[in-house]
Write a structure and sequence with these properties.
By secondary structure, this protein is of the alpha/beta class. It has a single domain (2-188), classed as P-loop containing nucleotide triphosphate hydrolases (Rossmann fold, 3-Layer(aba) Sandwich). The chain has ten helices and five strands, in the order E-H-E-H-H-H-E-H-E-H-H-H-H-E-H. It has helices at residues 14-25, 32-41, 45-54, 62-73, 91-103, 118-132, 135-138, 140-154, 157-162, 176-188, and strands at residues 4-7, 28-31, 82-85, 110-115, 167-171. A five-stranded parallel beta sheet has the order 2-3-1-4-5, with helices on both faces. Helix 4 (62-73) packs parallel to helix 5 and helix 6 packs across helix 8 (140-154). The protein is globular and about 40 Å long. The two termini are 13 Å apart. The relative contact order is 0.20. The structure holds BIS(adenosine)-5'-tetraphosphate. BIS(adenosine)-5'-tetraphosphate (B4P) is lined by residues 10-16, 32-33, 36, 53-54, 57-60, 65, 86-87, 89, 93, 124, 128, 136, 146, 176, 179.
Length: 190
């Protein structure tokens, strides 16, 4: 199986590039952000809980996120592989994912980390706010908080995959097509 962690700060292009990767490699796309937003729209208990964190730019608690992700993975019988988009975001999530995939007889093939500087992230998210209707995109203070949380809690997850020799850094600045090609090259090299 080809199991990819697509990693990067908020607004780095994870969701955008995931669409291209699933098409080319026939993978199942699991975006924890999308799953939370679907629950918010459906007014489920999970959605209500997730919204209280997401609107502040905070991470949804690990226990909730890990259980949710696990239940999504097992829904798919004999997939070619998964793109984990926005997961793991903490070391605890990364450890849980390894344990869980090991139980299924598989593991992470590679982490592809989109690198984009902070000023560009803010520009992209504020631009998306004009069309997304996402409360977490519209408020500069919430965006700053998301970036701070990324730097403090999520960026350290890189080391987890570096230690396993599964880390590839990708320049996330450029046109969407250019970045897609960088990702294709990286995947085809593993
Ligand atoms: P996510 O939904 O993952 O949102 P995101 O980090 O903003 O990235 P997204 O994938 O949507 O944006 P993209 O970079 O593609 O998370 C939202 C929230 O959910 C989190 O803050 C957290 O509260 C919660 N959450 C999710 N997962 C969690 C977890 N595992 N644990 C705990 N909490 C969790 O694109 C951004 C914009 O840039 C788009 O408008 C796009 O068009 C544009 N863009 C993309 N590529 C570009 C390029 N090359 N040039 C110019 N613009 C570009």
């Amino acid at each position: 199986m080809l199991n990819i962690v697509l990693f990067g700060p908020p607004g780095a292009g994870k969701g955008t590039q995931s669409e291209r990767l699933i098409e080319k490699y026939g993978l199942v796309h699991l975006s924890t952000g999308d799953i939370f937003r679907a629950n918010i729209k459906g007014e489920t208990a999970l959605g209500t809980l997730a919204k209280s964190y997401m609107d502040q730019g905070q991470l949804v608690p690990d226990s909730v996120t890990i259980d949710m992700l696990r239940s999504e993975v097992v829904k798919h019988e004999s997939p070619r592989g998964f793109i984990f988009d926005g997961f793991p975001r903490t070391n605890a999530q990364a450890e849980a994912l390894d344990t869980f995939l090991n139980e299924l007889g598989t593991g992470i093939s590679v982490m592809l980390a989109l690198e984009v500087e902070e000023s560009e992230l803010k520009t992209r998210l504020l631009k998306r706010a004009e069309v997304s209707g996402r409360a977490d995109d519209a408020n500069p203070e919430v965006i700053q908080n998301r970036i701070n949380v990324y730097n403090q809690e999520t960026a350290p997850v890189k080391s987890f995959y570096q230690a396993q020799n599964k880390f590839i850094s990708i320049n996330g600045i450029g046109s969407i097509d250019e970045i897609t090609n960088r990702l294709f090259q990286a995947i085809d090299s593993i």
